[in-house]
Amino acid sequence: MQIRTTNVNQVRVKSLTYSSVLQMGDAAIIEPQADILAVQKQGTISSDKGFEFQRYPLFQVNLPFLYDAEIVRGFHNSDDPFIRVQSIDITAVSASSVVQLGNNQRVHSLARQKHIRIVPNKAR
Questions:
Q1: Is 107 within 8 Å of 30 (Cβ atoms)?
Q2: Residue 89 and residue 14: Cα distance in Å, rounded?
Q3: How much is the mean pLDDT over the chain?
Q4: Are the C-beta atoms of residues 25 and 103 closer than 8 Å to each other?
Q5: pLDDT score at 44
């Protein structure tokens, strides 16, 4: 991996949430992970009991790492040891995402999300 210096004049990020990464410069490995359980309750339910991660198989399963079927090997050589960027404007980065200016050997991101909506039964 060719090491270069990242030179950024201005970065504006409005929102960076849920295990996301803003990386300026080189890194070896980035592995953000976000386990998200979103519960929308309507009515008089006020307890969060019963909404533990352990109750939902989605958060217990060991997911296999999926390798790309096609491996592309290449050699890139830049005569300029700098990555130069004038301005970056990012609205939002969320749920185990990566914004990186620089080199990286490996990025492995995982986001698991379970949305539950609880609405009261309406009398007929």
A1: yes
A2: 8
A3: 83
A4: no
A5: 64
More confident residue, 52 or 49: 52
Task: Report the alpha-carbon distance of residue 92 to residue 16 in Å, rounded.
Answer: 6
If 0-12 CB within 10 Å is exposed, 13-18 middle and 19+ buried, where does residue 74 land? exposed
Side chain identity at residue 64, one-letter code: P
**Segment 14-23, tens digit of pLDDT:** 999 888 999 8
* Residues 69-93: tens digit of each pLDDT: 677 777 777 778 888 889 999 999 9
Amino acid at 97: S
DSSP 34-103: EEEEEEEE-SS----TT--GGG-GGGT--PPPPPPSS--------S-SEEEEEEEEES-B-SS-EEEES-
> Could you tell me the residue ranges of all domains in the chain?
5-118
